[in-house]
Amino acid sequence: MIMLENVMEFFRNLPPKKCASCGEHMEEQAEAYTTVCSKCAGTQ
User: Fold this and answer.
1) What is the tens place of the pLDDT at every residue in 1-44?
2) Which domain holds residue 7?
3) Which of 1, 5, 9, 19 is most exposed, with the fewest beta carbons within 10 Å of its own?
4) Cα(42)–Cα(37) distance, rounded to whole angstroms?
5) How high is the pLDDT of residue 18?
């Protein structure tokens, strides 16, 4: 049980995801591995 708590604590303490191009915070989505925001990718 302690190991599960350590893993959950690790993920809670991760910094917010940032765009590799402009540095703005990105909303994280499950199964999304992109490193640039939709503005920089030209999809917005």
Assistant:
1) 567 788 889 988 989 899 999 999 998 777 778 899 989 998 76
2) 2-41
3) 1
4) 9
5) 94
